[in-house]
Design a protein that fits this description.
Helix 1 packs across helix 4 (61-72) and helix 12 runs antiparallel to helix 15. A hairpin with a 2-residue loop joins strand 2 and strand 3. The protein folds into two domains: 42-110, no CATH class; 126-357, MetI-like fold, CATH 1.10.3720. It has 360 residues and is mostly helical. The strands form two sheets. Strands 1-3-2 form a three-stranded antiparallel β-sheet. It is globular, with a radius of gyration of 26 Å. The protein is 66% helix and 6% strand. The protein is built from 15 helices and five strands. It has helices at 2-28, 34-38, 45-55, 61-72, 126-161, 166-180, 183-197, 199-202, 228-254, 257-264, 269-281, 283-299, 301-307, 312-321, 325-353; strands at 75-79, 98-103, 106-110, 211-213, 220-222.
């Protein structure tokens, strides 16, 4: 089992290394000068040169990549300046660290991964920005997956038990439509209908976040109703998937020999379905739920932007509009890490529950 876990962690690390490389190369070839962005397009050769030096943009691409890996690595090598202050190899940003080894003017330190600083929000680290927005995205993703799981499984059971009925066919049509509609289009339609046309009935707003500042600007207060429409929108596609998956899996289990044997023994239909069929039918659904939850963290970009939800997705869109590349790069890496960790945990859980899936 230990070898199985180590194998999953190793491949997860390789995947993360590939993501880091792709992200760096992708944003390195984008047009635009980050130094000029930080000066708001002001032409000051001395300041431009200094900023480019601080950002390492005056170095060859391979060296910039090495500096980037050094910033992200928990164990890194840094220079010590004349004031005996430790800096990253690429930026003048400071952070807490633990000294491991000294090599003259260089030292090896252990630290948290450094995602650098925003181009537009001067003096504010990307880690701080992500820390302020990621909790809202997590709340939205958790609410969405709960809605999708509960209603998806319930509708899937109803559809399977009423196979070939008009309700079953209606659910198949609705779920097929739900799986095909893009999230941004669904967000616009749902916001228009429930928050604009039916606002007097629902009392819901087209835009709003989990916390809002009161009219006097004296503090924030929780507004849970703003979570309803974004959560429904983000959960609509996985809800459709869970419905069809539950239906097909349950129908397959109901055709198994041990289910026929249970009916032949005279067991009540409710007991056979709940205690025998449904328990085995939900295994693939649980797999899908874990995968969709990880995908929601990355797929909430358009939903958050349409509904004005102050999450990581909206922050990514704003950063793209202002070409604030460190925020985009940091957000992509954080989402990738969470996606990899969730998949590793699910694989390990399967290895514990079913020894057949372990890699020898």
């Amino acid at each position: 089992m230990i070898n199985y876990i180590l194998n999953k962690i190793f491949y997860g690390f390789l995947t993360l290394f590939g993501v880091v490389t792709v992200v760096f190369l992708l944003f390195s070839v984008l047009p635009g000068d980050p130094a000029r962005m930080m000066l708001d397009q002001k032409e000051d050769p001395e300041q431009l040169a200094q900023i480019r030096k601080n950002l390492g943009l005056d170095q060859p691409l391979w060296k910039q990549y090495a500096f980037y890996l050094n910033d992200l690595s928990p164990i890194s090598f840094h220079n010590i300046d004349e004031n005996n202050e430790t800096y990253t190899s690429l930026s003048s940003g400071k952070y807490n660290y633990t000294d491991l080894l000294n090599f003259g003017s260089n030292e090896m330190v252990i630290k948290t991964p450094y995602l650098r600083e925003s181009f537009q929000k001067q003096g504010k680290s990307v880690s701080t920005i992500i820390g302020e927005t990621l909790p809202n995205t997590m709340v939205l993703a958790i609410a969405s997956i709960i809605i999708a799981s509960i209603f998806g499984i319930l509708l899937g059971i109803i559809s399977a038990l009423m196979k070939d009925s008009w309700l079953d066919r209606l659910l198949l049509v609705i779920t097929s439509f739900g799986m095909s509609i893009p999230s941004f289009f669904a967000a616009i339609i749902i916001a228009y209908i429930f928050a604009f046309l039916w606002h007097d009935i629902t009392g819901l707003n087209m835009i709003g976040s989990l916390y809002e500042v009161d009219d006097l600007g004296e503090g924030k207060h929780l507004v849970l109703k703003n979570l309803i429409l974004p959560a429904i929108t983000l959960g609509s596609r996985p809800l459709a998937v869970f419905t069809q998956l539950t239906r097909n899996s349950l129908l397959e289990v109901l055709n198994q020999d041990y289910i026929r044997t249970a009916f032949a023994k005279g067991l009540p239909r409710k007991t056979v379905i709940t205690k025998h069929a449904l328990r085995n039918a939900l295994n693939p659904v649980i797999t899908a739920i874990s995968g969709w939850f990880a995908s929601m963290l990355a797929g909430s970009v358009f939903v958050e932007f349409v509904f004005g939800w102050n999450g990581l997705g909206k922050e990514i869109v704003n950063a793209l509009n202002t070409l604030d590349l460190p925020i985009v790069m940091g957000a992509v890496l954080v989402i990738a890490v969470m996606f990899i960790l969730i998949n590793i945990l699910v694989d390990i859980l399967y290895g514990i529950l079913d020894p057949r899936v372990r890699i020898k």
